[in-house]
Amino acid sequence: MNDNLKQELFRAIAISTATSPVLIPLINQQSRAESYNKLEEFKKYNGRVAIILELLQTETLMLPANGQHVDITASTKLYALGVLQTFLKTNYAKLNNEGDRLAIRNAVMISARQLLAKCCSSAIQDTASENESRFLAVKIAALIADIATRDFPQRWTTFISDLFSPPDKGGLWYVPSDASISKGYGPLIGVKICLECLKIITEDCTDGDFNSKISTSRRNDVLIGLNEVNGQFLPLIFELVSFQYTLVNNAKTTIGEMCNYLVSTSRTIYQMTPQEKPMFEEQVLKRDNAGKIVADCLSTLEKFCQSMPIEWMLSNLHNCDFISALLHLLREDTADTNVLSVACLQQIVVRKIESQQWSRLVSLLPAAINEANDISTKQDSIKAASEGKTLDSVQVLVDKYPFHRALSKMLASTISAHIAHITNDKDITKDRGQNFQTVTNFLILLADMLSHPSPRICGDQSNTWAVLLRDPQLSKTQTRLLQPCFERLIVAYSKHLIRIRWEDIEEQNHPYAALFEESFSDKDEYDLFLGDVRSKANLIFRMIGGIDPELGTSVIYQKFEYLFATYANGSVRDHLDPATGELTQQSTAVMELEGFNLPLDNLIHGLPQWALDDTKTRDPSYMEPSRVKVRNEVRSMLGDIATKVIAWNPNDIWLKFRRVTLMEALKYYWEFDAPRLMSAVDAFLQCLGDESPTSVAMHNLSPEVISLRKKAGVSLIAVTKKVPRLLVAWLGQLSERVKSLLSLSSILPANRMHLYEFLSCVATAVDDPTMRSKFIADVLSDALNQIESSRIKDAIGSVDRLLTYLGVTAAASNPASVTNESVVDQVTNNYVRLFSAFNQLLSVGKRCHEAAKSRPNAGIPLSESQLLQYQDTFPDEGTVSINDLSMNDPFVHLWPRILPSLMQILNTIFSIWHPTNQAKYLKDPVQRFIYAISDDEAYLAKNQGSISSGGVFGEGGTAGSVVSGWHRRACNLAPKWSGWFNELRGTCLQLLGLVAGQRALFSPEISPMYPAFVSIMASTEHLNAMEHRHMSQYIKQFIDYILLSCPSTLYQSHVAPIAAPFFKHMEHRLKCTWAPVLKMNEIPPESTKPLTTSDCEAAALLALRGGDEWLLSYYARGGAFVGDLDAVISEAVAEKLRVEVSRCYADMLQAALALKGDWALVLANVARDEQATKKGDSNLLSSGPKSKVYDGALVNADGSERSEFHYAIEARKQQRIDKLCHFLLLENETIAGYLVLSIVECLNYPDAYTCRRCLKICHRILETVSWVERYTHLLGSQMFTYAVRGVIYEQRWMVGIEWDMINVIRDIYCRLVLGQSLQCGGQGAAMQSPTDATGVQFEQTKVVDKPLQGGGILCKPSDLPRQVLVSLPGISPDMVMQLEAKLKEKRSAKDQKDTLRDILRIAAENLKENENGEELGMLGRADLSESLLNQKESAKKDIIQDLPEKLVTQSMILKKNDKFYNPDATEMGA
To answer: Could you tell me which residues are beta bridge partners of residue 1440?
Structure first.
């Protein structure tokens, strides 16, 4: 490149960076574009490296412009370094000449030395020059680091000495003897380069985000090299920190003396004389410059602490006591030195350190922190006085918040990461010795930090305290290590659980507003944090209550006494309702009491039974004198709380609300205080019937009163579920009281449900089955009479009559009727009457079913002796009479009365959606809204299922968007209909799930009704007319239950008539649903848009024609009618419905095939039992997930308690697991064919959730039926083709599940072609079956009839999978033969999957060559970085490879000669 071209390059660089104001006349849009193109062209120039090396070694680069010379040295070198860095990544490894590598290295080092010389010669630089120097230094450091990671230590053996030598020896390490007063790094720029370079190298070789670009061997070589020569740089860094800190301290001392002098003369720093001010500013500059260097050192040391040998920091190598230095620096706040020191200590304590080193840290930290606090307090006082201000304690907390939070995290990690050091020390666990005192003092310091006003401190320590309290050695009562902290913990967490008003923060009304603004970015972040800290605090309160009941209860009792005395009488009144003058949710009294609820609830929950139960006087463990004393104290305090809460009768609605929540919080106490329990129940019931102060009419109740009543009902149920047996004695009185409440006109519908549920809870505790059943029938007599009444029977008898009953029919002739107040009230009452009857039945039925399942026999209709008697044959696995079933479940005997009405209303509701009716009602501008989605469904679609963004009626809600301008609370029937039909359908389908779950559906009493039942529930016309949202409900609430609840002997008679048409229908529905998305059958993608008001006329005409044309359109949009909803939310609705119905279908089949849910837990229990037997470790059976605490009792694999008859119950489930799988896949050709076909087709539908689950189902199918020849074409051709296509097309939606897909390909090929079987789920190495005597067929596996143990293989190998592979582009028969040879040679799962990936990659590459690059969205091909097939290639790209030279260090030589060598963990540099 000649000089002219160089000048053009310089000019382009100058214009692009706008180096000088002189160049402004030359800069315009055209010149910038030309400069950019010139610089990009240079990057492709073949001779660019030689020019760059020349530029880097040129001391000064000038550009003539407008008669002046502009210095472009920094900008040119920055550009040159960038180009060189790109060259390093792409072409450096290709350099075979050591001279070329040396030339690059020398050029960069010369550039660094020139920068150092320039900064040393310039006493003071301006800000622009300083920034240029700093940017250039960082860039040079990055480039040196890049070269070092490629060449050090084998090729660049002098790397460390080249950097850390003084300038006169060619190095960059220069530390002037006096403090710098330059505005930047000045002569310390070389030090900056050295520190930055080491930091980058350490990070690149150890951090997971970076080291994937460096081969393992290369990374280890670099780390070994650094460890070998650490003596050349660690002492220099330690000495630098010491010296610069001395300069900082000296400058601060001088500044302090100056400030004291000013204060003594009644002046401030703003009143200094012209002679004093420069002197003061000089000291500030010295302090800041030296502090900046200390901060840079600590940033590098943090990387050492995180990843390099821990001995560098802890073992005083080379007389460098870094720990003492870091502890000393906790007192220094210049340049956030204290925060960086804590960061270094944090990285140390989270690593595994020896007990002695840990003890040293624990003993030194409290003193260092106290000293730092004292010094900081003095400095704050001096600073405030010198500025003429009073000390602002809140602002001090704000300024120190980063340090305090980091310190709290570090102290917490010091404990949580080394619990074993505490538990393994017998002196500590036995409360003796110096170590015990040291750890106790440390824990007290940690607990004292919880008093910090910022709740973040509490939040950061929550996990540590939970770990400590969970540990059985530390939490036992005899150990007093934790007890001194309990009061601090309860007080601190109780304080921070109280929600603050964020508007007080925004308006600066909160005393710590500034601190909260520093702690949280906004209200959403605070709310998220509060929810998290509350959940963790619950566990802390619970465990403290279990460890020290008296102390925990005493602290909570004192808190209650204060709150009750302060706020119970309503004297503290703020944030009042302007209309009523009452307290609101934002009032201080209400918020304080709300925050107390969780501590009270969880502390009582954690109390041991002996601390509350005074009835077990014959149990010696309960009657120990110490326990008796504690129990008396605890019961006295909790009894006083209960008495005061029950007697409390506040006037404000929100205080009444808080009273209800406090009574609910005592639910674990009421069990041991029956007299007060009845008073509490009476108080709950009184809240349900309290009249509104202004009106008794239900629709005139204020929202606050409604909230109170609903909460009282929910709380009543919560308490009753804990203590139903204690209320049985008062059942008659309670029944009368409930009846009187139900007679009130102002009782809420929700409270009616609560009352029915309340009585059913108590009734299930009655021991006599006959009395239970009789009482339940009496409780539900009104609901039963209602559904059997002529009025309701007539209303649900046909579509026309039901729509007339709900005001739909009248809207055709009189549209104004839907907004007529009297009509709206009448129709609403009609609906409530109909819905409440079925909802009451559902609520009570579910409660009875839960109670039956919680009995020892889990609701199985056998006596306990019979359960133990029958272990292999199960007489209850068949039809069981309702009388027998009702022995456990008192609700069952009502089904013969309920089912006829239930079938009728479902038949009518399903019929409303038939195309003939849709053609009729979609035409009407008002009636059409019976088919619309509700505002709530629109809101869930908009917010992806979340309800935490303000709700339907909140900001950004969707109220009034479906029926434009009208919502369900308005006086208009149209927006109410959608919600009504949703509720009715959902309730009725849940009742169907209940009748199946309770097994009444399979009883002989129901048998005469079953054909009619099937004709409704399996009607093709009904199934076809269901929208996707209806089908999702149908699957979750009915199909799921009937498959899992039906006795195995009744599958053919009861499951087959429903399952056969269902699976046939679902295959067709899913195919039509996804066809527009996949652009199949020439169906336009626009057809997926939901139906809107403007399209109703056309949709009505299409529905009138019916047939496949209507079905294709109907399923494409999910059947959804969105009314006036906007296009964006409408699209979200369609997407949600489409994926939801697919996912529900996959989830249902997973549950039926024991791949998830209750049956999967059975298999997990079996596997764990086998593991425990194999290992001879029975402790495995009493432990589960680590997130739970266990008391030694036997538990399930998920941590839940096992029942008394666990094995008898699970034996029945295991039988159903085996038989249902066999029935679905081998006993009914219609079910099996459409089930397998639908799952195979799901592999092609672009929803990763569905596909991943269907892949698991595919394995279960292969395990069950791969040996059956009639399945061979479906599995070997269709399933295999879909799986292969899914991998080689590399579609974006498939990213993340490719390995799962390849595993299915492997499973198919092994079983159908190679005669290899796999473990359950396609796991483990393939097991080769031998061939028979003919050598043509394979011998069948011994577990062919046991899918859960691996299943069978196809004895006669199929060529279908081979044909599929050969049909792929680029795949030849020879390649398939080679594939099979490799699959037989290496049968491990990893090897076989890698082999399959390699051949599929070839097909994918050939396929890519023929693609036109069309953008297909989620159906398009994934990027190279995301592609699994190209994972190995992309991983190799730009990676820093190993060096051919073998690394030999002095330590290795000593080891080889075995002289004075003691190998340790530091040798490998990690």
So the answer is: 214
